[in-house]
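[#protein-structures] MJ: dropping HTH-type transcriptional regulator ArgP here for a structure pass
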Amino acid sequence: MFDYKLLAALAAVVEQGGFERAAQMLGLSQSAVSQRIKLLEARVGQPVLLRETPPQATEVGRRLLNHVQQVRLLERDLQAQVPALNEAGLPERLRVALNADSLATWWAQAVAQFCADNRVVFDLVVEDQDVGLKRMRGGDVAACICASERPVAGARSVLLGAMRYRAFASPEFIARHFSSGVTAEKLAQVPAIVFGPDDFLQHRYMAALGVNGGFVYHLCPSSEGFVRMTCAGLGWGLMPELQVQAELARGELIELVADQPIDVPIYWHHWRNGGELLDRLTRRLQQVAGIMLVSA
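AK: finished. structure tokens for HTH-type transcriptional regulator ArgP:
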């Protein structure tokens, strides 16, 4: 039989990124959290954490975290059926990993009514769409949005649609660098803007234009900052059509190469045994994303 106080300590350390913040969240001393982790490791007979900064779950730790995520959701279903079990009367906290561009565009509209109807608050973890699945594999989120179709063991994936990206730049940037027209070779020689080291969307775009070598770029790990930097003329970048409608209407951004979009599929991954709450959220996301995203 599991001691869920020990599992809660493990989840808190991983989700909060350290023992001190985990202790604050649990209302315990740091030494008490450490003792719970040591006791859990003694019971399973092997380490559950790698003492790094931040701490990372071992393979057995990830399995325990996956179990904790699903138990929390199933407990929520039981509390809905037996309200007296939820003594604190607190809303459910749902930890989800998603990419910054979804957060900056369609996500809030998709989940606002769902949160109100189901008394849910989100703990959002922002990851690039190509790597968000590692959070589920690591056991520290209940669901994620990413570009990968294949789910981790014990989870399902649902195709929501695709985010359509186009290459944009400011009129001043275009006048300065492309007075005689935009070519792939010139694009490789002027600054681009890339979201982060795990973002290879611009690389794919350049390859589609026939450029497979390197190019210079700024790193900007913020969707809003990405748009502001592009509008200011610091570089060109690929952005979701959904995000820049106002800037296009005001003439602050111009598409660099017409009819050259990149569609990035968006998959919703969630635990198979995640209970009715995750099922309802899945249906809501399918409904709203089907309107706001393009067909993949």
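MJ: nice. The mean pLDDT is 88.
AK: one more thing. The longest helix spans residues 59-81.
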